[in-house]
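Support reply, case 0932

Customer input (verbatim):
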Amino acid sequence: MREYKMRRGEHLEERIPDMKATIEEYFGPVTGTEEYDGNDLYVIGDPKNPVFERIVAGTAEYSGKKNKLAVHFEERPAEDVIAEGNADAAADAVSAKNDFLLEATGRDAKSRRDSLKRTVEDDADTDVPDAS
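Our regenerated output:
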């Protein structure tokens, strides 16, 4: 599961007031919910794009902190998708993911990658034991 934070000064509930409807618009009908870190996230068990096997998405709420978008995309093997003649669906899947994440977070793919790199670097700095 990946969590995405919003741009400074922005909140997820302002960007996406109806999370369920937005998820259904991008990926297909919600077929259930799944618990993650004390939050109920929406499950799309049969996404409209054949590249996706299953999608779990929703709001991860934290007391005293801004809410984050929690998402997990399960994708089918590329060989299977191509063998079925759905190679064009791969580009559509990437667009759907990026468009959804941009709408939710206000960050494009490059700024999300840069933010992820900073988080990984910060985590590496805190994991290093003190040499003294």
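We compared this against your earlier run and they match. Two observations from our side: Strands lie at 2-4, 32-36, 39-44, 52-60, 68-75. The chain has one domain: 2-127. Please reopen the case if you see a mismatch on your end.
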